[in-house]
Amino acid sequence: METRYCMITGGNTGLGYACARKLLATGNYYITLACRTADKAQRAVQNLKTENPSCAHLIEYLTCDLSSPESIHSFVRSYKELGFPLHVLLNNAGVYPGSKRETTEHGTELAFAVNHLGHFLLTSLLLDLLEASGTGRIVNVSSELHRGAPSSPEFPPTPEEYTAKTAYATSKLANILFTYALSPRLKTTTVNSCSPGWIPSTELSRHAPFPARWIMQTILPYLPVARTVEQGAVVCCRLVMDEDIRGVTGKYMGKDGEWIPSSEQSYDVNMQKRLWEVSSELQLRGLW
Ligand SMILES: NC(=O)c1ccc[n+]([C@@H]2O[C@H](COP(=O)([O-])OP(=O)(O)OC[C@H]3O[C@@H](n4cnc5c(N)ncnc54)[C@H](OP(=O)(O)O)[C@@H]3O)[C@@H](O)[C@H]2O)c1
């Protein structure tokens, strides 16, 4: 099989790391981790190389902070300077925000900025490479928690309606609305979204108060409904690799690797259009 070039956002830990590990082990993918924190990324790359020495030449990282348009532009410039093609974009990075509303440098609510806007810009800047590959695949990692978004969410969420839960749910709904709106705009690339299931062992709860975080990461992983990062990675990697779904686009996959319906509101074309317009406008201004 010809080497396929795959980019994973937030691949230094959690689900993204497990996906990188699984894809690397096949020997069929050249993987670029797009990571905010350079020292964590370096460690992740080193661990992956040590674990899989025969594939050590197939993994690297470049820094990219998805809360910053400048950082995303610079990341894409660096990648394009390498002269590599791109076959797969796994938009995995994400934050579950804290109870106190945080914003980017320019005042945009953080979860919406990182989970949606950063990936919206990154995807648009990489579409030329993905389309040129002729067999591109984009995977947007969402969550079943998208079903908890307000019935008519503000994009980005305003301070008045802020709770961590609604901000996260809105950003995860945005992942799916974006998937459905992008799919008909593509020529040769497919785009799908998924939920990896509930994986309490990752660092996603890092902004929660200490006791809750501790319970989440040390006790809840033993509950029967909890999944491991490896189980979550199976779903994401199915969308990246599997031949039986080649050509399928604009769909949502559940934790068991089957296509399932997303929330009713995610199919609302007016909401998809509204999100697209807001995101394009913010992208044009280059500030969020
Ligand atoms: N865990 C679950 O139960 C669950 C369930 C459904 C969906 N998901 C989704 O799965 C994805 C991965 O989450 P996870 O559970 O693996 O959480 P995680 O362990 O916290 O990993 C999140 C990743 O995103 C990166 N990231 C955060 N802010 C970033 C930024 N501004 N720019 C670039 N990268 C950034 C983190 O990098 P740093 O480490 O450098 O901050 C980290 O690599 C997310 O999209 C999440 O919504 C998770």
UniProtKB/TrEMBL annotation:
One Pfam family recorded for the sequence: adh_short
InterPro entries given in the database record: NAD(P)-bd_dom_sf, SDR_fam
The keyword Glycoprotein is annotated on this UniProt entry: no
PROSITE patterns, A to Z: PROKAR_LIPOPROTEIN
A single GO molecular function term of this UniProt record: oxidoreductase activity
Keywords attached to this entry: Oxidoreductase
Keyword Oxidoreductase attached: yes
SUPFAM superfamilies to which the protein is assigned, alphabetical: NAD(P)-binding Rossmann-fold domains
PANTHER family membership: RETINOL DEHYDROGENASE, SHORT-CHAIN DEHYDROGENASE_REDUCTASE FAMILY PROTEIN
Family: Belongs to the short-chain dehydrogenases/reductases (SDR) family.
Name of the protein in question: Uncharacterized protein
